[in-house]
Amino acid sequence: MFWAASVATGLLLAAAWPARGFTPVVFFAWVPLLWAEDYAYRRRRAGEAGRYPVFLYALVAFLVWNILTTWWIWNSTPAAALAWGANALLMATVFWLYHITTRRLPLYSARGGVLIVYWLAFEYIHHIWDIAWPWLTLGNVFATQPAWVQWYEYTGTSGGSLWVLAVNMLFLAWCKAVMAGASKRDKNVRAIAVCLAILVPVGGSMWRYTHYKSEGRRVETVVVQPNIDPYGEQYDIPPVEAVKRMLFLGEYALSPQTRFLVTPESMIQEYVWEHKLAYSPSVAAIHRFLTDYPDLSVVAGISTYSRLSPEDSATRGVRKRPDVFGNGTLYYLAHNTVMVIDTATAVAAVSAAASPMPVPVGFPLRHKSKLTPAVEIMPLVDKIGFLEKWAIDLGGIVGTLGTDAEPKVFRSVTVGDTVTYADIICYESIFGDYVTGFCRRGAELLFISTNDGWWGNTPGHRQHAEYARLRAIENRREIARSANTGISGFISQRGDMLQRTAYWEPAVIKHDIKTNRKLTFYSRYGDILGRMFLPISLLLLLAGLVLRIIKR
To answer: Fewer beta carbons below 10 Å: N end or C end of the chain?
Structure first.
């Protein structure tokens, strides 16, 4: 019976999940697991004998959920099994800590609050450490229902996680009242509480959704989806040919008024030293293209290397090799980079190319800083060096990459107008708190450059595209999303998908997206709920441990 309840929770959570799930299911998906835990809690408090392995109940539930919603990771690597197991293990541990803490502390009717505190603290940690995997943050379940969660501009996805857990616990209370034969009044009160807990946030959000108007000046933006097969074609065609394909597609939609051409992650398929970018054949091809579009900025992904001084040789992710000039050891970092190429950099690059000596050109660059675990960052690699050899190859540079200390924004300057914007690279787009940093630094527009082709035509690329809608709501920024193979599109400030390309088809789309300088509450302060609940969860753990010691 308890095992069936565990499996039921995993199945229901998967059934609610984007992109094709039925979202309302999430409001009672946790009830079977919560019922099993509550039964074990009450029996143990009553002193009854019996084994109730709550940890294992939770592990089964979360393992089913992880496998059914992220099975597509297997398309790129069999190491997916480790990801499912590790994430389910972490979730089960959090649930078990909630169980044992409430057994030791005299909380009783406040038990549900402990689960909310622990779970939101866990989700916050899961956004900031080396093995960050916030894909299954509970608040992400509403990605396909932007009209329900317009209040994410205040809480971010943490507010959605709190909402899901609170409604599930109210639902459990109603179920217990029905099974216990409670009075009609008591059952009605609990039923009304469940309905209000769902309808009040939805109603308020719907009102905000219908009354919110996107604001700002219009900026003509073109997005290309070149559709280069990451498993084969990417390695068969010359890098310059890939760039020419991207420019050929873009030219179908470009006009003299186009301000931005947004391209996917690693669109420039060369591996270039950052001080030699001006000499890249692919960059030179884009420069020649810009002669017909003097006001155009091309936002392009590329894999780069940057040199370090010997004094910085302890930097995380540092690589080394003998210096080609025989001057000892060369220390350097590898990066997943996005660069901006415009007329100003084109003129500088031409001047550098004409110089008899190499001249560095200061291209606007930023490095991906939220790295994909086991692909772009190996946890504990500083202490266990051989782990670097196990990095999964998903194209680009393999192994721990160099990052930026702070989010960086770009500026496009034309006569009488300046637009500040940020380009979010692939995996970074699911980190809501991180994306707010670009807005605080003045980003009026958000671009996303990604390559979702590694997962095939599975829920993976669809989920990734839908999550971007939450970033638009949280920051009230319009988004242009360019995927090499996946879903490209434009997203409004209230989370509507304005245009959407088909999977596995070359495409180019254009839209006048609107800038916005105003900061939402969430943009300004970030994930307050997560930061608040983390120390509270530590205090609860400490209190439970102290009581345990005292009783012994």
So the answer is: C
Burial of 430-465, coded b for 16+ CB within 10 Å and e otherwise, reads bbbbbbbbbbeeebbbbbbbbbbbbbbebbbbbbbb
Predicted TM-score (pTM) of the model is 0.92
More confident residue, 129 or 205: 205
Handedness of CA 370, 375, 380, 381 (dihedral sign): negative
Q: What is the pLDDT of residues 98-135, one digit of tens each?
A: 999 988 887 777 888 999 999 999 999 999 988 889 99
H, E, C per residue of 136-196: HCHHHHHCCCHHHCCCHHHHCHHHHHHHHHHHHHHHHHHHHHHHCCCCHHHHHHHHHHHHH
Q: Which SS3 state, helix, strand or coil, does residue 304 take?
A: strand
State how far the Cα of 491 lies from the Cα of 507, in Å rounded to an integer. Answer: 17
> Is the N-terminal amide bond of 19 cis, ω within 30° of 0?
yes
Sequence length of the chain is: 552
Up-side HSE of residue 452: CA atoms within 13 Å toward CB? 27
Supply the DSSP string of 57-82, one letter for each residue. Answer: HHHHHHHHHHHHHHGGGGGT-TTHHH
> Residue 112: exposed, middle, or buried by beta-carbon count in 10 A (0-12, 13-18, 19+)?
buried
Other CB atoms within 10 Å distance of the CB of residue 28: 20
